[in-house]
Amino acid sequence: MSDEVLVERRGAVQVITINRPQARNALDAAVARGVADAVDELDASDALRAGVLTGAGGTFSAGMDLKAFLRGEVPAIEGRGLCGITVTPPRKPLLAAVEGWALAGGFELVLACDLVVAGRTARFGVPEVTRSLVAAGGAALLLPQRVPRAVALEMLLTGEPIDAERAAAVGLVNRVVDEGSALEAAVQLAGVIAANGPLAVAATKRIVQSAPSWAPEDAWARQDEIVAPAFASEDAREGSTAFAERRAPVWRGR
Known about the structure:
3-stranded mixed sheet
């Protein structure tokens, strides 16, 4: 990985840190490639069960690096979106640990994550319209799926940010914690997820992501296609056996 993106393992949890604090973790081509490579490793590794995305130096990300943009750099991966996760998010759960500002493209990375843990002083915003731009990196599409439509429109059309408490109140943030502790809290939450059956977790995420596009008359059949392999797996038998034997299960991902 490049110096712009740091990757570490904490047990079964992968921590991905955007490491450009001097630029408020603005997104350039190197960051995009580093994040994309990290989530590829997350999905490919049997030892990793969940990931956490965060920013160094007390800021999540201020969005696209405009200086890099003027040099011809775009912080996107072709066919995969911003940093390789907005169009094609990882198969495994990805959490955002947010301190400080998550703006524009930085906020769109938050929306690409499944769960959000925020420090109490975190701020979230999509200011694109204030520069006669459109939040086309995911916010205009994804924000109305995460919060009530009126709240999404308020954020998108005014460009004004909201704080962590309001973000939690409208359902965007799962947990608000003391300033400076978002990463540890997110790793802890990711660890709870990582302790569960990996096939069941992946199938559950896939259903939640896919179901909005299913026709109502097809939904149950489409769900059955996804869950059948999980129910027939060795892990499903291990889960029931471990419960009966009053011991912790040992997942093998098959």
